[in-house]
Design goal:
There is one protein chain. This protein is an alpha/beta fold. It has 21 helices and 15 strands. It has helices spanning about 1-30, 35-65, 75-100, 105-125, 135-150, 185-190, 195-200, 200-210, 220-230, 235-240, 265-270, 285-290, 310-315, 325-345, 360-365, 380-385, 390-405, 425-435, 470-480, 500-505, 515-520, and strands at about 175-180, 210-215, 245-250, 250-255, 270-275, 295-300, 350-355, 410-415, 420-425, 440-445, 450-455, 460-465, 465, 485, 510. Strands 1, 2, 6, 7, 8, 11, 12 and 13 form an eight-stranded mixed β-sheet that branches. A three-stranded antiparallel β-sheet has the order 4-3-5, covered by helices on one side.
């Protein structure tokens, strides 16, 4: 009976915590009120919290030596304080992560839930010392109502009718644009003291054209960030928030999970499973150029042959059968196939977008050989692989040089890296190793700054920092397309010479949304 008396407040508190996490999931994924799959989530979390809270209550009881009553408000209010504080902090730490992913109504509802949890935490803290049954009943009702109100809110993003499609027009005569979208490259990779001697093509772009650091909207999810680049808008506007759809306990369709509530652990444990991959809604500016009577192509890796001979020539230190060999082989094979296909198409296209992801793949696993944060690397292994990132940068310099040699007289070449990759903290590296991932030593989720370089006969020389969302309006302007007013980027007029800007005024269109939806 004593254990039952201890268990009862813990049971109520764990049920409330489960419903609160269900409310968080409902807000993030725009689920209808009380969907059955979210009830499974609430029950799962209630079962997860229950033994923890019960052991905590038992520990407190052993210390105090008191005899708990069945309706023990002191235990209940204390547990509600701990859980509401934890969930309020969870919402707070996710605000920056979700700001660019959620439409405004969902985001502000998410903030309101965090404030409600924080207020409940402060209220319970002020009442922990009191003990009566009325308080027990009031707090039980208050806790469930606080999550139930948000749980039952119907969050629906209003879809406005798309504006009329723009009037078809032709592109500016003679102009071409090549965009090399390179994930993982940083300014340090191309600007370090020895870089100008070893990287002649990057040095040429920096010396003869515009360049600068690039800031991307947080979080950086490769496929989502790339589509934001193609559309010039954030995920909260274009709606593509995740490249994957997941199920929880085999039920539901979830695209966003909050951090700090074990979802990443659940993925590895099989509780959260991949349901399907979500394709990109469209090809953004590539689609627009085609519809404006131009020729455009997006080149990315799909099926690609294994380039073992190239790997042995560039990275002889990688031994066949090791993870280093397989990582470098996959990255090289992707980038070589993409660059060769793009070079064959370059002379026939007004716009060519080339998606290179090899540097990101290499840095995610090889940064431990170049960072002082990982002191326990075997010396022989460190000596073999500490130059891999530099060699891969040199490989990219060679690719850029091949595109520069084929650039037409009025062509614009843009090398843009949306984000760099930074080494993760050592404690996280070893924690990931204990959880089964012993290779990943880098991360880019918080969008460390990338870099860009742009060159044409009309570009200025100098350092001009830009946002990732600026490139689509800028390239559209250079090609003679109307610039979308709804775009959250801008035309980077500072990278062009004054005479070019005066001779080519910016043409605006209200929105391209209807253009994409009707496919006209």
């Amino acid at each position: 009976m004593k254990k039952i008396k201890l268990l009862f407040p813990a049971l109520l508190a764990s049920l409330w915590a489960g419903f609160s996490i269900g409310a968080i999931l409902r807000i993030l994924n725009f689920l209808p009120p009380f969907p059955s799959e979210v009830l499974y989530v609430a029950g799962f979390y209630a079962a997860l919290f229950l033994p923890i809270l019960f052991l905590l209550a038992l520990f407190v009881n052993l210390i105090t030596g008191g005899e708990p009553l069945l309706l023990n408000s002191r235990y209940l209010v204390g547990l509600i304080f701990l859980l509401s504080s934890y969930l309020a902090l969870t919402v707070y730490f996710n605000l920056n992560y979700m700001r660019n992913l959620l439409p405004s109504r969902a985001y502000y509802t998410f903030i309101a839930l965090g404030l409600a949890l924080a207020m409940l935490s402060l209220l319970s803290l002020s009442l922990i010392g009191r003990k009566n049954r009325v308080l027990f009943v009031v707090f039980t009702i208050l806790a469930f109502v606080s999550s139930g109100v948000f749980y039952s809110l119907r969050i629906k993003v209003a879809s406005q009718p798309p504006p009329p499609s723009p009037i078809p027009s032709t592109l500016a005569e003679g102009r071409r644009a090549v965009v090399l979208y390179v994930e993982g490259l940083s300014a340090q990779d191309i600007l370090k003291p020895s870089g100008h001697q070893k990287l002649p093509n990057f040095a040429y772009l920096v010396g003869q054209g515009a360049w600068g650091k690039v800031k991307s909207p947080v979080p950086c999810i490769s496929e989502v960030t790339f589509f934001s680049f193609l559309r010039g808008t954030k995920p909260s506007v274009h709606g593509y928030r995740s490249p994957r759809e997941y199920s929880f306990l085999g039920r539901g369709r979830y695209t966003l999970f909050p951090k700090w509530v074990f979802f990443q652990t659940f993925k590895k444990a099989g509780v959260v499973k991949l349901r399907r991959k979500l394709p990109r809604p469209n090809q953004g500016i590539v689609f627009l150029v085609r519809k404006f009577q131009g020729k455009a192509a997006l080149v990315e890796a799909k099926k690609y042959p294994r380039r073992t001979e190239t790997l042995k020539a560039l990275f002889p230190e990688a031994e066949e059968g090791t993870w280093q060999y397989e990582t470098l082989l996959d990255a090289l094979s992707r980038d070589i196939q993409v660059s060769e296909r793009a070079l064959r198409l370059m002379k026939r296209k007004h716009l060519l977008v080339v998606y290179l992801e090899g540097m990101k793949m290499v840095k995610l696993r090889f940064l431990k050989y170049t960072s002082e944060f990982f002191p326990f690397i075997p010396p022989q292994e460190l000596e073999k692989f500490m130059g891999v990132v530099d060699k891969y940068t040199l490989f990219y310099d060679h690719i850029v040089g091949r595109f520069l040699t084929q650039l037409p007289p009025e062509g614009l070449v843009v090398v843009v890296s949306p984000f760099s990759v930074e080494p993760i903290a050592p404690w996280r590296f070893y924690l990931e190793g204990l959880m089964g991932d012993k290779l990943t030593c880098g991360d880019f989720l918080d969008c460390p700054e990338g870099v860009y370089m742009a060159f044409s006969p009309w570009t200025n020389r100098g350092n001009f920092p830009l946002s990732l969302l600026d490139f689509t309006p800028t390239v559209a302007y250079y090609l003679g397309l109307p610039v979308e007013k709804e775009s959250q980027g801008r035309v980077a007029t500072e990278i062009f010479k004054k005479e070019f800007f005066l001779e080519n005024p910016i043409l605006f269109i209200h929105s391209y949304r209807g253009f994409f939806k009707r496919g006209r």
